[in-house]
Amino acid sequence: MKAKVYSTDGKETAKTVELNADVFEVQVSDGCIYYAVKNELANRRVGTACTKTRAEVNYSNTKPFKQKGTGNARRGDKKSPIFVGGGTIFGPKPRDYSYSVPKKVKRNAMRSLLSLAVKEEKMVVVEDFTIESCKTKDMAAILKNFVADEQRTVVIMSNDDAQLRRAAKNIPYLHVLAYDKLSAKELLYGKKVLVLETAAKNLNEFYCD
């Protein structure tokens, strides 16, 4: 299929770009998308939650009361989990939540998301550009021609453009991705996907088996 190429002014140009049907017209796999998004969220999770057991609590080792004669249950120390200030039973400890999914699942998820973007008409191919000034206002001026009401937007670059990333850094609803490092979560929730012309050609080859 062929897609129209738009200028940074939001106007249609005479150019078109060929989109590979094996990447942009595949059957959408909800399962692969689910597993890819779940994997990304798990890998981003910071497992730093930590509680102290009764062995780690800095508290008195003395018995709260004598062993016999009080009518109460015997107590060894005040660090017991049932006392205020005592240890925690089976509390969270630092851990790594990340895991891996098969490469084929990831690739199929990306193809499904790109095809879904084309199907829902939220993907636009834009001629290659960069922000030499690195200013946010210049980036915002371009986005205004494609995005309404500050919708969640994804820009797919052909390479890692530091100037473009810097200009987009202070725009909260914008996410800039390289064509070979796409994010399933951002593509799924993005209301608008702007693909640079060269990036579209690279996607044809990168995600084609």
Task: Tell me about the largest β-sheet.
Answer: 6 strands, mixed
Catalogue the unreliable spans: none
Average pLDDT level = 92
* Residue fraction in strands: 5-15%
Number of helical elements = 7
Identify the CATH homologous superfamily of the largest domain. Answer: Ribosomal protein L4/L1
Number of domains: 2
What's a quick, concise take on this entry?
With 209 residues, the protein is of the alpha/beta class.
Keywords:
7 helices; 209 residues; 6 strands; Ribosomal Protein L4, Chain: A; alpha/beta
Task: Summarize the structure in words.
The chain has a six-stranded mixed beta sheet with strand order 2-1-3-6-4-5, sandwiched between helices. It is 32% helix and 15% strand. The protein has two domains: 2-45 and 103-206, 3-Layer(aba) Sandwich (Ribosomal Protein L4, Chain: A), CATH 3.40.1370; 47-96, no CATH class. Helix 2 (30-44) packs across helix 3 (103-119). The model has no long low-confidence stretch (mean pLDDT 92). It has helices at residues 21-24, 30-44, 103-119, 136-143, 162-168, 184-189, 197-206, and strands at 2-6, 12-18, 123-126, 153-157, 174-178, 192-196. It is an alpha/beta fold and 209 residues long. The chain has seven helices and six strands; from the N terminus they run ββαααβαβαβαβα. It is elongated, with a radius of gyration of 27 Å.
